[in-house]
Specification:
Blueprint (H helix, E strand, L loop, with lengths): L20 H23 L9 H8 L6 H18 L11 H11 L2 H14 L4 E7 L5 E7 L10 E7 L6 H4 L3 H12 L2 H9 L3
Antiparallel strand pairs: 1-2, 1-3
Helix pairs in contact: 1-3, 2-3, 4-5, 5-7
The protein binds manganese (III) ion.
C-alpha cells in the first residue's frame, strides 16, 4: 500500500488573488508531492508500511532513527490539513460553540487573531502556526518548527497556517506578516475548524 497525493479541495487558481495558481502548483504539485514520494520510498522496507498516516506520524515522533519517516509523514499530513484550512472567500469569523471557545480562551476574536499572527511571526525559520483544542475542548495557539505537529501531543488541530517560505514567497516575497494577515482576513476556513471542533466537544 502506498500513499497518494490528495487532490486540492478547490481549483489551483481558486485562492487568487491572494495565493496564486503558481504558488499552489509548486506547493501542492511539487513540495507536497515530494513528501508523499519520499514517504513511500522510506516505508518500502519498514514495518510501518500499511499503517495509517496518523499512526505513522505518532509512532515516529521523537525517534531520531525514524526522523526521515516522521518528517515526510508529518509534512504529508500537515499539508493536507492546511489545504482544508483555507477556502475561496474565506476569512470572516466563526460562529456558535467555536466562537464562544475562542472568546473564552483568548478574550476576544481580535485578540485571537493577534496572538495567532504573533505565533506565525515568531516561528523562527520554517514551521506552522496552529489553533488546537485539548480533550476538554479548551483552545490554544501553538507554533511548531519544520514538520512538527500538535497531533503528537494529543491535541486536536482545528486550523493550521504554513509559514515555510514556500507557502508565500512567490506571492508575498519576504512579507510573512502580510501573508498571515491575508490568511486570517481572506482565506481561513472557519467551517473546517468548526467541523474539527465538533469531533472534540
Ligand atoms: Mn508547505
Amino acid at each position: 500500500m502506498t500513499f497518494e497525493l490528495p487532490e486540492l479541495p478547490y481549483a489551483q487558481n481558486a485562492l487568487e488573488p491572494h495565493i496564486s495558481a503558481q504558488t499552489l502548483s509548486f506547493h501542492h504539485g511539487k513540495h507536497h508531492k515530494a513528501y508523499v514520494d519520499n514517504l513511500n520510498n522510506l516505508l518500502s522496507n519498514s514495518p510501518l508500511a500499511g499503517k495509517s498516516l496518523e499512526e505513522i506520524v505518532k509512532a515516529t515522533a521523537n525517534d531520531k532513527e525514524k526522523q526521515g519517516i516522521f518528517n515526510n509523514a508529518a509534512q504529508v499530513w500537515n499539508h493536507t490539513f492546511y489545504w482544508h484550512s483555507m477556502k475561496p472567500n474565506g476569512g470572516g469569523a466563526p460562529g456558535g460553540k467555536l466562537a464562544d471557545a475562542i472568546t473564552q480562551a483568548f478574550g476576544s476574536f481580535d485578540s485571537f487573531k493577534e496572538q495567532f499572527a504573533q505565533a506565525g511571526a515568531t516561528q523562527f525559520g520554517s514551521g506552522w502556526a496552529w489553533l488546537v483544542a485539548d480533550a476538554n475542548g479548551a483552545l490554544a495557539i501553538r507554533k511548531t518548527p519544520n514538520a512538527e505537529t500538535p497531533l503528537t501531543n494529543g491535541e486536536t488541530p482545528l486550523i493550521t497556517m504554513d509559514v515555510w517560505e514556500h507557502a508565500y514567497y512567490l506571492d508575498f516575497q519576504n512579507a510573512r506578516p502580510k501573508y498571515m494577515n491575508t490568511f486570517l482576513e481572506s482565506l481561513v476556513n472557519w467551517d473546517f475548524a468548526a467541523q474539527n471542533f465538533e469531533n472534540v466537544v
